[in-house]
Every structure is written in structure tokens, then in C-alpha cells.
Amino acid sequence: MLLGMFTSGYQRNPLEHCFEDAKRFGYDFIELWGGRPHAYAPDLKAGEIEEVKRLIDKYEMPVLGYTPEHNAYPYNFMIGTELQRQDAVAYLKICLDMAKEMNSEFMLISTAHAGYLATYEEIWERLRTTIRELTDYAEKTGVKLIVEPLTPYETNVIKNANDLMELFKQIDSPFLVGMCDIVAPFVQHESIMAYIEKLGKKIHHMHIIDGEQGTENHIVPGDGAIPLPELFKELKESGYEKTVTLELVTGYINEPRLYTRRVIDTIRKYMKEAGF
């Protein structure tokens, strides 16, 4: 099982710190956050991709996943006018191009909030249209498109394993796959391991971190309420061997280097105990 570092918590640090620390702390890959000042796709397209490639080579640290910022200002393909939706899709196509340039295996997207007045019919019509366009483009680039369910605190669209299953039923492509951020099922009283059983070959990635009920906060392992040592034992028995990102986001933005080290040290211990 390969362990990745998520870089959004480093946005007040130089991008090179992400690659340097991933190498120093023993991560296997980087899941690169695509926002300024580090890896915003239009900036990469304008030439800054060369710096990312330099860091990949210097630290021998692949960017297996690219996760562009698109659930806040100014992009959200689930809300606003058709012009705004098309603008978000055009942006995400640039992101797919940049993921290909970095030799990324996947690009990760999620669905932001569709607004309080949107009906299920309106939500799913807009979702189908958008994901179909992005999947068609992903097939051309050769980069897998991973859809991440979020918590109900963040979205009213794709929130759980059943939502993913319905999406895959409506759009069938080997380049459209899913994942599990374990905080999402945990705070919804849904089974984490049910994702693996329900999605089968369609589960391509995981975000593992600690959490607690009543919030979408991502917490350093051991400081929350998710039984992580037991989860790794279950993952081992299930045969899960795909990628995992240890997803610290911005809750530790003041000291990302300290907490990023602590996270992988703790998770490696859990993995050893589980027999990985």
C-alpha cells in the first residue's frame, strides 16, 4: 500500500518543502493540491509546470494524484448559471492536461454544494452532464478521474457509497472511478469498509486521517475518534492494496512539517501492527 502526502496544508510554505518533506519522512508519493500559490492549473499551463517537474525529479517523488481546488470561489460546477458550469468544466479540463503533464495516475474531484433550492432531478441532470464531459476528456488524456464523496457539511450531491454506485451506473467508463475519505462515512454513521465491498474494482483510492462526530475536520491520527488501528487490520484482511493519501488539510497550517511527520510515523506503526 503506497502512502501519499496531501499538500494543501503547506500553502503558506514554499512548494519545495512538500517534496523535501515527503522524501525525508518516507512518503511514497504526493497528492498535489491545485491552488495558488503552488499548483493552480492555469499557472502551470503558463509555464510553472516546469518547476513542479524539477521538484519531482530532484526528490524522486512522483505526483501520482492531482487535486485541483474547485469547490469554492470561483469554481463550483454544481451551482450557478450554465455559463459558470461551462467555465468550471473548461478549468477542470486544463487540470486534466496538467495532471497528464506531471505523469499523474489520477485527478481527484468532488461535488460542492448545489444550493438549497436545487431538486434531486436538477442535481443529477447537472451532475451527469458535467461528469460525462469530464470523463470523455479524461479518456483522451489517459488520466483516471476519481470522484470523492464529501460530508453533508460540505455537499448535498455525492455524499456516500450509494451515490457513487448510482453515478457509475449512469456513466460507465474505466476512467471514472471512486474513493473513500474515511471522515465522510464516519460522520454519517456509514460503514467505511462497506465502500470496498460495494464498489469493488471501482474503488481506486482512499484518504485516511482521524475525525470526530459533528464536524468534517481532519485530525492527526490518534487525536480523533476513528478506530484506525483496527481499520488497518480490516484493510489488510480485505486485500486493499491501492493508494492511500494521509490527508491533513489546513487545520495544521501553522506547522505542517511537524504534523505531516507525526501522521506518517503513526500510520506506519498501525500498518506494521496490521501486517502490511
From TrEMBL:
Descriptive protein name: Fructoselysine 3-epimerase
Domain Xylose isomerase-like TIM barrel: 19-268
PANTHER family, sorted: HYDROXYPYRUVATE ISOMERASE
Pfam families: AP_endonuc_2
Top-level taxon of origin: Bacteria
